Amino acid sequence: VQLQASGGGPVQAGGSLRLSCAASVSGRTFSEYVMGWFRQAPGKEREFVAVINWSGSTTYYADSVKGRFTISRDNAKNTVYLLMNSLKPEDTAVYYCAADRGLYSVTYYQKKKYAYWGQGTQVTVSS
Q1: What whole-number distance in Å separates Cα of residue 31 and Cα of residue 89?
Q2: Residue among 120, 123, 93, 117 at smallest CA distance from 2
C-alpha cells in the first residue's frame, strides 16, 4: 500500500484546508482499509487526529479537533480526506495519513495499529 498525502500549506487562523490522501492498493480493495490521520508538530510526538471505517459510516476524532475537522472517504477514488475548519496556530504540524487492513475498532487511535503510512503534508497556521 502506498499513500500520498497532499493539500497542506500556509493558512491564517480561522481558515480552512482540505487534505487528501490517495492510496494505491494493488491487489486489494481500498474499502478493506481503516484510514486514519495523524499529525506531528515540531518537538512533539505524532498524535492521533481522526479515523474512519471502511464505509465511512463510523468516524472518531481527537478531542482537540472534534467539531472542527471532518474525515471522509471516497472508495471509488481510493482517497480519504480531512476537512479542517476554524484552524488554529496549534494545528500547525505535518499531517500523515495511515492505513490498516483490519476490522475497525476504538483502538484505531493508536499509531501502532497502522501498517502503512504516507509521507506527510505540512500545515502551517499563522495567527
Answers
A1: 33
A2: 117
Check whether 106 has a pLDDT greater than 90.
no
- Cell numbers found for residue 14: 480561522
What per-residue string of b and e applies to 20-52 under the rule 16 or more CB within 10 Å gives b? bbbbebeeeebeebbbbbbbeeeeeebebbbbb
d(CA 60, CA 63): 9
| pLDDT given at position 27 | 87
What secondary structure letter does DSSP report for 7?
-
Question: Average pLDDT of 53-81?
Answer: 97
Q: What is the dihedral of CA 1, 109, 89, 85, to 10 degrees?
A: 80
State the Cα–Cα distance between residues 57 and 51, nearest whole angstrom: 11
pLDDT-based confidence at residue 8 (cuts at 50, 70, 90): very high
* Structure-derived torsion over alpha carbons of residues 39, 41, 44, 46, reported in degrees to the nearest 10: 10
